[in-house]
Amino acid sequence: MANFFKDNSDLVFTLNNLELEEIADLREENYKFASEFENAPTNFADALDNYNRVLSVVGEICGDRIEPRSRTVDAEGPKFADGVVTYHPLTVQNLKDLTQAGVMGVMLDHKFGGLNFPVSVYTMMTEMVSRADGSLQNIFGLQDIAETINFFGSDEQREKYLPKFASGEYDGSMDLTEPDFGSDLQSVRLRAWQDEKTGQWYLNGMKRFITNGCAKVHLVLARSEEGTTDGRGLSMFICEACPQLVVRRIENKLGIHGVATTELQYNDVPAQLCGKRRFGLIKYVMSLMNGARVAISGQAVGIAEAAYREARKYASERIQFKKSIDQFPAIYDMLSLMKVKLTAARALLYETTRVVDLRNGYTHLVEHGGDAVTAEDRARQKYYNKVAAVLTPMCKALATEMVNQIAYDAIQIHGGTGFMKDFNAERFYRDARITNIYEGTTQLQIVAAIGGVIQRDNDQRIAELAGLGYTGKLARLRDKVMALHARQLEAVKFVAERKDPAYHDLMARSLVEMETYIFVGLLLLRDAMKCEAREAIAERFVLDSIPEFEKRFMRVVSGDVTLIDNNRDIIDY
């Protein structure tokens, strides 16, 4: 029997060392729910036991049921006929298995039938589901739809929708992209109009590339304000599947075959306003997208875990020149680097979810705590909000670029057989490719992260990590990382003082990647203090990072404005 939680020592290590006590205390509001709900924990030990138990159940479902079905789901996928999407029977069974395990409302409040688990634990589930079947995560991971309604919807909307999301009766989709507008969401045209007599809202227009667009409940970004052309004219709406909401087709995709990606036509679809008018993009969708960034990071780490394991297994079994190919330096060097990159991405992912959980916890406390809220609580909420804003896009950029490289290398280790559909390696490669595109490309993650890098929003956490009690080799490696940090400050100052927007934008990716090397290096050193076996991973990451950092540093501080024109010349050549 396979268990994708118990067989992953890095994931188990992460859960046990993530410092979730403060998060659980905030989530359970000092465990006041235990007297009302049978499954609510009574203290942190009880909460941690719940996390372990449920993760183990999901790990078993992923290993024993979902993964063995994944090849068939990928090969056959969903069907579309007469405007109706029908998921593959094995996909339906996968969702039934997860529903019976009670994990379709992982983060929802106890009162709605949810588990009230933190984002960190939910992300561990999404990672395991993605390792088993990357496409299934695109349905399971849409629990952010329910979370968004929970955060911003009315009491009536919460009562109507959330219990059915938690029970698995409802599934969701977020309908953002349009045929002419992908990343440029502020230009969305789908029209929302209100009947002046009844107050009923209706939606008209098109959406494209909608994951699980055959869902029962849709969150839709639409233009509610006549005469507007920017994000301030957009609102968020909830609508349900109905005859007026037409699925025009499902896309024939490179990968992620198990989930339907649809084109939708809205013909006066009845809808409800969710939250306030004009806040659809600037507040609600940005919150939804931030949650999606974390979910896709988890998906990337899960697919990378599967690809790495497949490559390692194949290399240990493939005999060439009378020995297994994992004994050749060229191969075991590739495998070790794959493992380092995977571990690095996971470390950043769960540091990010920890910060997101703390931000969510203190935000809830500040908004609902009344007179009990202190100045320190407000300061913590502000701080974690700031750090989450830089870590979330940084995490997605690292994790999704990482999985593409690991999936690429997994095929390389397989050789010609990896190019064949007889092996899983080619599926992981196809499934990985979308991760650094949807929910914001890597280029947009850089745009989202660069402000925090320039403002040094993460320096407090960097100082905390650098100040841990390192000794010996770890202390020497910490000093190397902090030497990079000093040079990062120099590079940031150089760019900021130039006051040249074009140069700032051109150097943004280098600055964000330099920041990532520093921060992840410290995270891996922190973990190596707790587990000696992780020291080699931390050492290789830090030593490999130094030349990569220096290459970017020299480019940034060159001040060579001709780089801008040279890039254009190269393109035009």
List keywords for this structure.
573 residues, alpha+beta, Butyryl-Coa Dehydrogenase, subunit A, domain 1, Butyryl-CoA Dehydrogenase, subunit A, domain 2, Butyryl-CoA Dehydrogenase, subunit A, domain 3, seven-stranded mixed beta sheet, 11 strands, 59% helix, globular
Can you describe what's shown?
This protein has 573 residues and is of the alpha+beta class. The chain folds into 4 domains: 1-169, Orthogonal Bundle (Butyryl-Coa Dehydrogenase, subunit A, domain 1), CATH 1.10.540; 172-278, Butyryl-CoA Dehydrogenase, subunit A, domain 2 (Beta Barrel); 279-448, Butyryl-CoA Dehydrogenase, subunit A, domain 3; 458-572, Four Helix Bundle (Hemerythrin (Met), subunit A) (Up-down Bundle). 59% of the residues lie in helices and 11% in strands. It is built from 18 helices and 11 strands. The protein has helices at 9-17, 21-27, 44-76, 89-100, 119-132, 137-140, 144-152, 155-167, 280-317, 329-368, 375-414, 425-432, 442-455, 459-466, 472-498, 501-530, 535-556, 562-572; strands at 79-81, 84-86, 172-175, 191-194, 201-211, 217-223, 234-240, 245-250, 261-274, 319-320, 323-324. The protein is globular, with a radius of gyration of 24 Å. The N and C termini lie far apart (57 Å).
